[in-house]
């Protein structure tokens, strides 16, 4: 007989597939024209439980203020979540935000810090979209100057990885206000099904800068080129470090320690070397591994069930890893909203669909 959690998982898959079917998947072929803020439904408002610690009750749109000590964005009682925003992934971002709020017992204590490209022509659209669907959300939008990183980016095996905004996570300590001490960084293709405060309170020990789920069974050597491993001065980088792969789409980061250690500069130094001698093939991940692998605080694997986007070359469907699930991550080539629209979803895409805020065709506001 199958374990109870496995039976429940298959039941949820079946229910969600039925949900998608009766919402007429053939009608879910959304127009290819640019999205508008009004095309997303307004999410319900979620309230704190009585046990939540009190924090300042300020405006939901955190404008830059000189007196940051009285600003909600500086609250140590809040859970600070950082995500990048762009028009191509906004649908995933909206679903991720909804999932975080829906599964939190203190949703009003969550502050979102969104980073967008300073050169983006969709800045007003992104802000209006967030405000329209989450009118009570505590958030701030920061701009990331693409020129900061443009000269350091090397081409990778997937062109999508070369977007400058993918590298913004290396500059969070510079982008966010100095008063923000600890953040959770999330990619736009995730869904949480657990209390995010549990992840936020991950112990970092006395000196760790970040925490993330580690995958020590992965072949770590494949993340770097033969040029790297054949050079003694480079391959010795991981000596005396139990270096394991970790996915940078879900991280808990101590920004105070990051600033003190000047880790942005350390990452940039590896990127400069990459430009000269090609030591890795992927985008923003390898510099993080070079600086932090073997030096991070562990997080239970349930907090990053990654790879659900499928095979990077063919987009083949994947199943969940064994064990409990707190966060689902559609890293990889395939995104659930794209596959659902094309009427070619993977089974696990049914778990993403209930968080999709994009209005179906002929939607009528009640």
UniProtKB/TrEMBL annotation:
Gene Ontology cellular-component annotations: Golgi apparatus
GO molecular function, one term: glycosyltransferase activity
Compartmental location: Endomembrane system
SUPFAM superfamilies: Nucleotide-diphospho-sugar transferases
Pathway field: Glycan metabolism; pectin biosynthesis
Pfam families associated with the record: Glyco_transf_8 (PF01501)
Gene3D superfamilies: Spore Coat Polysaccharide Biosynthesis Protein SpsA, Chain A
Keyword Membrane (UniProt): yes
Keyword Lipid metabolism: no
Topological relation to the membrane, as annotated: Single-pass type II membrane protein
EC number assigned by the record: 2.4.1.-
Keywords of the record: Glycoprotein, Glycosyltransferase, Membrane, Signal-anchor, Transferase, Transmembrane, Transmembrane helix
Family: Belongs to the glycosyltransferase 8 family.
Protein name per UniProt: Hexosyltransferase
Biological source species: Lithospermum erythrorhizon
